[in-house]
Amino acid sequence: MKQEYIISAYSENHIGLLNRITIIFTRRKVNIESLTVSESALAGISKFTIVVNEEKGKVINIVKQIEKLIEVLKAFYHTNEEMIFQEIALYKVPTQALMESDQIEKMIRSHNARILEITKEYTVIEKTGHKEETQALFDGLNQFGVLQFIRSGRIAITRSPIEKLSEFLRERDALFSKLEAKEK
Amino acid sequence: MTTKKEIKNSPKETIEITGSEAMIRSLVAEGVETIFGYPGGAIMPIYDALYDFGHHVKHVLVRHEQGAVHAAQGYARVSGKVGVCFATSGPGATNLITGIADAMIDSTPLVCVTGQVTSGLLGTDAFQESDVIGISMPVTKWNYQITSPDEIPEAIAKAFYIASTGRPGPVLLDITKDAQFGKLQFAYEKCTKIRSYVPEFPTDKKHLKKAADLINSAQKPYLIYGQGILLSGAEKELLSFIEKTGIPAASTLLGISALDSDHPLNMGMLGMHGNYAPNIKTNECDVLIAIGMRFDDRVTGSISTYAKQAKVIHIEIDPAEIDKNIKTEVAILGDAKHTLRLLTTLLEEKKHTEWVNEFLVARNKEEEKVIVHDLNPSKPGMTMGEVVRLSTNLTDNKAVIVTDVGQNQMAAARYARFSQSRSWVTSGGLGTMGFGLPAAIGAKFGAPEKEVILFAGDGGIQMTVQELGTISQEKLPVKMVVLNNDFLGMVRQWQELFFEKRYSFTEITSPDFVKLADAYGIPAATVSERKNLEAAMKTMIDAKGPYLLEVKIEQEDNIFPMVPAGASVSGCILGTDEM
Ligand SMILES: Cc1ncc(C[n+]2csc(CCOP(=O)(O)OP(=O)(O)O)c2C)c(N)n1
Ligand SMILES: [Mg+2]
Question: Interface pTM (ipTM) of the complex?
């Protein structure tokens, strides 16, 4: 059964890693619903967060293939329930519309959104939330004509108390010492 | 012709040299003795440096870059070392891709070095610029573009470490011309660790114990092994394992030669054109022990009917192979040699006489229905099987057998006999026609003391036949047998069996192979009658230099047994009458 999974991968910050990772999906004809890459809590280590709608078996296979890449430290997969996640959206609406009624203002309040910039011509509104939430605000604002709209890829964090990566790096250090011991 | 420059053996001391010289010195530091390659504009500085180091490293000039990479593969397979090849940018580099893909799927360690346009021109569609990093990404274990001379030693050290450790594979280094020309302070240090890469995992003792319990209590245990045995050098450990436990064993196409063909527990080969017993017994055993193999679809047939009755134990170095195709009861991550050694100590001494006998009964069935006719044909036309068997009989099962792809390959896999490890070279996962001839060149450089015999089809040999030029220039004593059936035989077989004999574009003509060889100065002969075969084969084997023997084969012979595509291994058939 297909469902949404969040794949997180930690890698060295090297040229070409994004390409190496995405071709794993392309080859299996799996569509990437959303993707974000940025530096993790540890300097020099990038974190990829990739959302797919797929069967579990395929996701496991993909995660193993990602992990097989030389420069990838570790990859995980989670269901939405296992993670806390957010997306951010920006909306540009005509300032005129904001002036003419209090509807937009009410919407901003009720959606917990905020205004980033107001000029004579346009106002930029920002909202973070799940896709349904950012979409709901879009649908609301669009009654007044949204001039521009952009939604980010998903970022996500596990519900476990410690960052998985630091746990993992500790394990890996232990593994390397074990392997070195075997060689001796 | 070269000049001589000495390499002093003090790796700690740094010297100022060019990137090109650093490249050659780094390769020498990695123990490289043979490079297969072809020059061109973007790699000229490296070739210039090579001119000074001919006494440290031998360069073999091929006739096409595909030849270079297949030769490097053949070299790696027989020697266990990393195969190395050079090509220029653009077309030189793209010509390598087939071989790199082949090495990737067959886990062959390679380091391929390609020249690249000057770094300032990258991305400008410069002359002979192609995005080799992008193109080779999906078919390399790792690749890297070097744009500055001081990256060279470290990149090479990493390349060799990655290519040769864990599950081996091809690595490509693309080096811009300015990085070859530029200078650096050179010192070489081998790579021993990359924090993001774990070549092998330590053996999990719990899983080991669980596997041992399963094997000890099994009534009908069956061991199947792949190239992992050869790659980890676990031949002895495999032997101890089966001899202690009395468990019958069969090999994948790439595992051939890891176990003596004559060993009483060696049941032969698995797969689509494998032996009958190994295939059908897969669906009758109670514990299936798979070592260093990946359950390729040519081995499993239909997955949904594969070994459903058995508890599967998978010993494998690559975590991505575990549970990929076949769900396991116990998976032990790790290298085959180490794992087998530990596992064998936990096993009870046994003899599974009745169970082994069941294999022999099935073997007899294949013997009667297939093998007798292949080896002692009643028809006048020669079979591939008899030619292959004669060659290994005449060489005491000690020759390195290299094949191309198609019926010739399957006949060689089925009828060649082996007594020595790493004496079988074939293109498995990719099934690359044209692999054979250049791979045989590489194999001869990798094992000069051994007889190297190539079996190729009339179709496949024509895909890389230009490498006769390399053999000629090197005066390389490779023995080549062209099994000529005037057809793209394997495809014709499928057309006969599954496409109502509609022979669509599988009739193929060939040049006069004797004249062709003669044009290259290579002695050759052709045989069309059985009575002349043995003498002709002896002449070939006795030849001091290269020799080509064309054997005219019965045109429409088929390879059996066969597990038809998508069928179950228990549906392995022995002839057309069973279809
Ligand atoms: C590069 C490449 N192209 C096409 C094929 C498909 N193919 C597999 S076997 C075969 C026929 C090979 O004919 P030949 O070399 O004469 O060998 P035979 O089967 O007759 O022994 C073909 C065309 C392939 N494996 N590789
Ligand atoms: Mg043929």
Answer: 0.93
